[in-house]
């Protein structure tokens, strides 16, 4: 069925309170959208991170009386009579189906293809990872994931152990295994990511070579020939002492989830123990790689 969308522009300081007002006025959902399309990063636990200029968007049932909704909102202390807003009707869609229709097989590097589990592989002789991300991050469509996949494809992983720190859908760990790694370990704070990684590993026939852990369950002593962490710049800096001990001497490290403006500070957190390569950049996102001295 169709829906009615009400959009109000505000600031990050007031967006959350205004969102509560929209819910009280009858909105079935509220989303926050950056007016200037500024990248948004995963908040820390308990933190709600918004933007300087924010559109607060409420979704209402098609039968809702929007004149009554506006009247209710005009009594909100954050708004005034005649406040600026935009109301439009939007058609309902099968968003999952639309996403599935637009997720196509993608090639990374020379050998590797990431293929949606519901599509045919384009090259049966390639290294094909069949992927259904579920609710976890990681399809290959984001530049950070793409950068990591291209890096893994460039390495000789035969017989190696790989740690995927923040494994999400398991895409990087599974790709490493399909590229020749003997063993992989995936770690994530989200139980849904662990489940998605497990499902994708079974789908690709590599589940026996993939260990998956929540941080509280991971072994105290772990090491690997290759460590990849596609998370965020803040956690990469904060967790540098933990991540730095994971690669063996001479082992490789790959970090992503970093904007170009953040690359220098992340490099500084690792340069004491690693010889770093030139930073690779794609669509304002970066990948930092090197080996442990």
UniProtKB/TrEMBL annotation:
Kindly state which reaction or reactions the protein catalyses: L-lysyl-[protein] + 3 S-adenosyl-L-methionine = N(6),N(6),N(6)-trimethyl-L-lysyl-[protein] + 3 S-adenosyl-L-homocysteine + 3 H(+)
Write out the residues that bind S-adenosyl-L-methionine. Answer: 145, 166, 188, 230
Among InterPro entries, the record links this protein to: Ribosomal_L11_MeTrfase_PrmA, Ribosomal_PrmA_MeTrfase, SAM-dependent_MTases_sf
* GO annotation, cellular component aspect: cytosol; ribosome
Q: Does the keyword Ribonucleoprotein apply?
A: yes
The molecular function terms of the Gene Ontology recorded here are: protein-lysine N-methyltransferase activity
Gene Ontology process terms (BP): methylation
Q: Which Pfam families match?
A: PrmA
Q: Where is the signal peptide?
A: none
Alphabetized, the UniProt keywords read:
Cytoplasm, Methyltransferase, Ribonucleoprotein, Ribosomal protein, S-adenosyl-L-methionine, Transferase
EC number(s): the record gives: 2.1.1.-
Subcellular location, record wording: Cytoplasm
| Similarity comment | Belongs to the methyltransferase superfamily. PrmA family.
- State the HAMAP family in the record: Methyltr_PrmA
Q: What does this protein do?
A: Methylates ribosomal protein L11.
- NCBIfam families registered for this protein in UniProt: prmA
Spell out the protein name for this chain.
Ribosomal protein L11 methyltransferase
Q: Which organism is it from?
A: Buttiauxella agrestis ATCC 33320
């Amino acid at each position: 069925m169709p829906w009615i969308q009400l959009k109000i522009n505000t600031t990050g300081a007031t967006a959350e309170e205004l969102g509560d007002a929209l819910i009280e006025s009858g909105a079935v959902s509220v989303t926050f959208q950056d007016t200037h399309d500024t990248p948004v990063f995963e908040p820390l636990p308990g933190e709600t991170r918004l933007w300087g200029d924010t559109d607060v968007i409420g979704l209402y049932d098609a039968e809702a009386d929007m004149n009554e909704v506006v009247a209710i909102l005009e009594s909100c202390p954050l708004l005034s009579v005649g406040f600026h807003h935009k109301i439009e009707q939007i058609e309902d869609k099968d968003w999952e189906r639309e996403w599935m229709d637009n997720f196509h097989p993608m090639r990374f590097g020379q050998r590797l293809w990431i293929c949606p589990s519901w599509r045919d592989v384009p090259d049966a002789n390639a290294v094909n990872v069949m992927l259904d991300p579920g609710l976890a991050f990681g399809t290959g469509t984001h530049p950070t994931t793409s950068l990591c996949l291209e890096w893994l494809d460039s390495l000789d992983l035969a017989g190696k152990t790989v740690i995927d720190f923040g494994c999400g859908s398991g895409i990087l760990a599974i790709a490493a295994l399909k590229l020749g790694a003997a063993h992989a370990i995936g770690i994530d704070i989200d139980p849904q990511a662990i489940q998605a990684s497990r499902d994708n590993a079974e789908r690709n026939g590599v589940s026996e070579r993939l260990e998956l852990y929540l941080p509280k369950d991971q072994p105290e002593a772990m090491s690997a020939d290759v460590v990849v962490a596609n998370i965020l710049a803040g956690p990469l800096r904060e967790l540098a002492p933990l991540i730095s001990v994971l690669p063996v001497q001479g082992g490789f490290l790959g970090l992503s989830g970093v904007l170009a403006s953040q690359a220098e500070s992340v490099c500084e957190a690792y340069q004491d123990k690693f010889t770093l390569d030139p930073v690779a950049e794609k669509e304002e996102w970066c990948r930092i790689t090197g080996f442990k001295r």
